[in-house]
Amino acid sequence: MKLYLGYLNTFIVLFMVHLSKAEIPGCNYMETVDLSFSPQFPNGSYLYQDSLLVPLHLTGQYDYMETERGVKIKAENHTRGCVCHLKACIWICCRFKDMQPNGECTDGLMDKLSDINPYLNVTLLNGSVVKRNLLSDFIVLRDAMRFRDIWKEHEYTLFENGSALLKGYNSEKQAFRGYDCLHPDQFSSENRGSLVVAFHESVFNQNPETLQPGANEPFLILTTAVYLKVQKLRNLHGKVFISYMLTIFMFLLHMWLVHFQIPLNFCVLRGYFLYFFSMARRIWVSALSFQMWKDFKSIKQTESRNSFLAYSIFSWGTAAFMTGLLLLMDQFWDNDPSKVGWISGVGWEYCDLKRSTWDT
Q1: How confident is the model at residue 177 (pLDDT cuts 50, 70, 90)?
Q2: CA count, 13 A, side-chain hemisphere, 79
Q3: Band of the pLDDT at 68, cuts 50, 70, 90?
Q4: Which residues form the signal peptide (predicted)?
Q5: How far from 329 is each of 254, 320, 322, 343, CA to CA, in Å?
Q6: What CATH number does domain 2-85 carry, 1.20.140.10, 3.40.50.2000, 3.40.50.300, 2.30.160.11?
Q7: Where in the chain is the domain with CATH 2.30.160.11?
Q8: Domain 89-199 belongs to what topology?
Q9: Are 322 and 279 in contact (CB under 8 A)?
């Protein structure tokens, strides 16, 4: 008899799962989480984060991933649960360099929050303000920083459903429901009274449009080869021009790398190399312009043996100094929300510098 009941329960669960729709009715995709690795009970429900029980009617089968603008990307079939209909959700930003392909953020923020155990002021429906624990009273979801995020800091009123009203800002930016996210390093044991928010103003694009390979590099290689082959062109002007062409080639090479899958541990390194050659390109073109001005000014001008060395020290040295300064600023201020407008943000929105603006 027990065996027949077991078969019957299994049949009912499979039948209910079969009836579950691909999309959960009334639930925005950004309010769902992947339940593929969550334990499932015989009645079809899932256990999320060891504490939240997601019933079967709030789950669905998805074969795509969706961006905040509704763009669907093909993905392997998986189960998602509408957890934000069970508990208020708060989205906290995750830097691109820390976001894994499966959506997991590896910046260690959750462990830091567990040690801090932060509280936030929450306004209830009756208007009273109470303190609520960020980890136990809300579901913390991680959201990837987007291309051209706009960072703003505002005093806020946080409601118990997870939405927030920012003082001095329009009502369209009231909620953080998957369309905006909070700076990950602004929480402490005491409430700061303001929030630093990344507003996703542009369409989500993990691979922003860049130069297409094969367009200019043949001309660069051919021109450089001519200057290296012809002895008369290997004068001071030619050496400066070759150095300038080298920076263009390296800059384009790094820009083309976005068309290939780059391991995340090389992402930040690539970003700083890109900045270095970008700066060197601008400095070498200034050196080239200065040398051309000198040539036009005095046709019979003799070349100094140390002129090219001086140009090289100035160009490569200045680019290295600026890159090093950028690296130090990122190391000291990367986790400071108040300095978000001062740092380069390498590895935030993508491997290179962030394209955001700071507006208070």
Answers
A1: low
A2: 22
A3: low
A4: 1-22
A5: 22, 14, 11, 6
A6: 2.30.160.11
A7: 2-85
A8: Methuselah ectodomain, domain 2 (2.170.180)
A9: yes
SS3 per-residue string spanning the chain: CHHHHHHHHHHHHHHHHHHCCCCCCCCCHHHCEECCCCCECCCCCEEECCCEEECHHHEEEEEEEECCCCCEEEEEEEEEECHHHCCCEEEEEECHHHECCCCCECCCHHHHHHHHCCEEEEECCCCCEEEEECCCCCEEEEEECCCCCEEEEEEEEEECCCCEEECCCCHHHCCCCCCEEECCCCCCCCCCCEEEEEECCCCCCCCCCCCCCCCCHHHHHHHHHHHHHCHHHCCHHHHHHHHHHHHHHHHHHHHHHHHCCCCHHHHHHHHHHHHHHHHHHHHHHHHHHHHHHHHHHCCCCCCCCCHHHHHHHHHHHHHHHHHHHHHHHHHHHCCCHHHCCCCCCCCCCCCCCCCCCECC
Of the ranges 23-27, 152-156, 190-194, 264-268, which one carries the lowest mean pLDDT score?
A: 190-194
Taking alpha carbons only, the member of 320, 237, 218 closest to residue 278 is: 320
User: What gap in Å lies between CA 94 and CA 129, rounded to an integer?
Assistant: 29
- Bridge partners, residue 133, by sequence: 119
HEC string of 292-318? HHHHHHCCCCCCCCCHHHHHHHHHHHH
How far, in Å, CA of 67 to CA of 207, rounded?
13
C-alpha distances (whole Å) from 256 to each of 118, 232, 314 are 43, 33, 27
pLDDT for 327: 92
Distance CA 276, CA 116 (A): 38
Is the Cβ–Cβ distance between 338 and 329 less than 8 Å? Answer: no
**What are the pLDDT digits (tens) for 309-326?**
999 999 999 999 999 999
